[in-house]
Write a structure and sequence with these properties.
CATH class: Alpha Beta
Helix content: 25-40%
Radius of gyration: 15 Å
Structural class: alpha+beta
Shape: globular
Order of helices and strands: EHEEEHEEEHHE
Number of helices: 4
CATH topology: Alpha-Beta Plaits
CATH superfamily: 7,8-Dihydro-6-hydroxymethylpterin-pyrophosphokinase HPPK
Oligomer: single chain
Distance between the termini: 23 Å
Strand content: 25-35%
CATH architecture: 2-Layer Sandwich
Number of strands: 8
Number of domains: 1
Length: 165
């Protein structure tokens, strides 16, 4: 099953992304299958803040989507993520983009991520590790989603396979 996560940070971002990856690697029942490069991306919503570093992971797990959400939110909590300002600075953000072909729409869990098709900061790193994956609702691939997304500055800063990943 193709399960994809997006990691993002703009507070000590490279170190926090690395820590989050290590924390995810340490989760019982979760294995990282692929990692994208790290991408520097301009902020969305609140523009007067540091740029973000984002990357995508493909993971394998026997956990349910809700269990995976609880585990990733536990990592965010352990890393002292504060949910005070929407689109504001953050130590770490871990989003479930896709959980295979599952479509879930609950108050606290929506899969596929509801804003994914508008977010180049997620789509560009996702394309690196999941270029052929089809959005289970829109039925289009990552490349088409990228071509239709609003413009955003996204720069690859560290290639996968470097000391940073």
């Amino acid at each position: 099953m193709n399960i994809y996560l997006l990691l993002g940070s703009n507070i000590n971002p490279v170190a926090n992304i690395k820590r989050a990856i290590l924390e995810i690697e340490g989760l019982k029942g979760v294995s990282i299958m692929a990692k994208s490069s790290l991408y520097e991306t301009e902020p969305v919503g609140i523009l007067n803040q540091p740029w973000f570093i984002n990357c995508c992971l493909e993971v394998s797990t026997f956990l349910s989507p809700r269990e995976l959400l609880c585990q990733t939110q536990g990592i965010e909590e352990a890393m002292e993520r504060k949910r005070e300002i929407r689109w504001g600075p953050r130590v770490i953000d871990i989003d479930i983009l896709y959980f295979g072909e599952k479509v879930i729409s609950d108050n606290d869990l929506t899969i596929p991520h509801p804003e994914l098709h508008r977010r180049l900061f997620a789509l560009i790193p996702l394309a690196e590790i999941a270029q052929d994956f089809l959005h289970p609702i829109l039925k289009v691939g990552i490349k088409e989603l990228i071509s239709n997304a609003p413009p955003l500055k996204v720069n690859r800063v560290y290639r996968k396979g470097t000391q940073y990943l």
